[in-house]
Write a structure and sequence with these properties.
With 465 residues, the chain is α/β, with parallel strands linked by helices. The strands form 5 sheets. The chain has a 9-stranded parallel beta sheet with strand order 9-8-7-6-5-4-12-11-10. Strands 16-17-22-19-20 form a 5-stranded antiparallel beta sheet. The chain is globular, with a radius of gyration of 22 Å. 29% of the residues lie in helices and 19% in strands.
Length: 465
């Protein structure tokens, strides 16, 4: 009875906000087929972060080989700081090799470390996507992903750290063959069947965890689009049976990271509660650095607008699961500010890559000097900005201006039904921000821990830092 009443209340709130009144199946967020929505029916725009976590991102060996890289721990201070910066989502990469190091034996100690990372985020009010992650297929031949027993054919050479040759590993014969055999039509080696059993185990474990909003099937698969689509559809069904009230996040082929487009789907994604989750790295990995050096804002719109088109073809919300670049990259400030404008305009949730890194590159929110982590003000400025976190009503415009750093949110008159919007205001603007509703000044109280304000505004809401 309690669940029925809650479902009915959510449906009523959705109808009041002008959205699809179909009762949601997923919690705490659900999909209406275009957007993520919260328990009051408001559009939920998540602003998130990826974090590789010590003991969870599996890059160490038990046979004496040198670990591939150093991975930092995730502390309660990290999680609270994420939330204070306006980041309300953690995309948490976990690895098949850690979950099932030996066939049909799940490592409970590893899963407890994942439990701890999820609890860290949840305790700070940060939602979690459990991301089944791989880079170059496996730590044994690449960086992370599958266990040794799931590499077909067996590797001719096992690799170790330090990881200074990831680019070469990604295109090595060992890695390419491993991908080809895993994704082969008909699953001739039984690898997908094994993977689905592992997915079921993972989804079952966190099926009822209130901090977990869903599960991501497979990070950056390097095979053709059709093979990835077929795999995603089968895997999503497995996850949904094990965790029917959670979202399922699915990526296209990682070829999109370079092409910025994939063939659109010819039919909606068959599993309810699915979320399309491409990555956007326009020009970032190009060997031709002049594309970034000569960057114009219009150059970046196509990838995001096409991602929205692709999500609409699947009949799913859009979540940009990875985006970003390094602070030293040419035009890094412009690239990130334009991405922020575009993600807001196309109503896309996102997760920046990444929180901390001390082993590969100079990316991340923090700098590492070998002893101490220090926040980079430049990256904090990219991420910690005024943005709409929850939108009540039918959106006419959601525009963040990279010059003024102000938000203009307009909803159709009469569509919000008195339900408040939720807006994040960064701590740097805690005492200076202004709010107007239909050009009339409004007083809003900012929560010091989360930076959030709630404002009921039927029409045009403007928030300036």
């Amino acid at each position: 009875m309690r669940r029925a009443l809650a479902t009915a209340a959510a449906a009523a709130a959705a109808a009041a906000c002008g959205s699809d009144p179909t009762p949601p199946r997923e919690t705490p967020l659900w999909s209406d087929g275009t957007h993520l929505r919260d328990e009051r029916g408001r559009i939920a725009l998540l602003r998130g972060i990826n974090a590789r976590v010590e003991g969870v991102f599996d890059v160490t060996f038990s046979d004496g080989r040198i670990p591939l890289e150093e991975v930092p721990p995730l502390t309660a201070d990290d999680c609270r700081r994420m939330r204070a910066l306006g980041l309300d989502l953690l995309r948490l990469p976990i690895n098949w090799s850690g979950i099932e190091p030996e066939r049909d034996r799940y490592d409970e100690a590893y899963l407890q470390r994942v439990d701890a990372a999820i609890a860290c985020a949840a305790d700070a009010g940060v939602h979690v996507i459990v991301d089944l992650h791989e880079d170059a297929y496996s730590k044994e031949i690449g960086e992370d992903g599958a266990p040794l027993w799931a590499i077909v054919p067996p590797p001719e050479m096992l690799l170790q750290g330090p990881l200074t040759d990831l680019g070469d590993r990604r295109t090595s014969t060992q890695v390419i063959l491993a991908f080809d055999n895993f994704f082969a039509t008909g699953d001739p080696h039984g690898l997908q069947a094994e993977y689905f059993e592992m997915l079921e185990h993972v989804a079952t474990r966190w099926a009822d965890h209130p901090g977990v909003i869903g599960f991501e099937i497979f990070n950056e698969p390097i095979v053709g689009f059709a093979l990835v689509d077929a795999f995603n559809i089968a895997a999503a069904e497995v996850i949904k049976k094990a965790a029917p009230r959670k979202l399922v996040f699915f990526e296209p082929s990682a070829l999109r990271n370079f092409s910025d487009v994939v063939p659109p789907a010819s039919a909606p994604f068959p599993t309810p509660g699915a979320v399309y989750s491409p990555h956007v790295y326009t020009f970032v990995f190009s060997s031709d650095r002049t594309r970034l050096e000569n960057l114009q804002p219009a150059d970046l719109e196509s990838s995001v607008s096409l991602a929205r088109f692709e999500a609409d073809a699947w009949n799913t919300p859009l979540f940009i699961g990875e985006f970003g670049l390094g602070p030293p990259d040419p035009n890094a400030d412009l690239w990130m500010d334009v991405q922020s404008e575009l993600h807001d305009r196309y109503l896309a949730s996102n997760a920046f890559w990444l929180w901390k890194e001390n082993s590969q590159a100079s990316w991340g929110v923090h700098d590492w000097d070998g002893t101490t982590w220090t926040e980079r003000p430049q990256v904090v400025r990219w991420l910690s900005r005024v943005h709409a976190a929850r939108i009540a009503g039918d959106v006419v415009e959601n525009r963040w201006d990279r010059t003024t750093r102000a938000l203009r949110l307009e909803v159709a008159r009469g569509s919000s039904a008195g339900v408040p919007h939720v807006v994040y205001v960064p701590e740097a603007s805690a005492t200076t921000f202004t709010v107007t509703c239909n050009d009339v000044a409004v007083t809003a109280t900012r929560d010091a821990a989360t930076g959030l304000i709630e404002v009921a505004c039927d029409g045009v809401l403007a928030v300036s830092p």
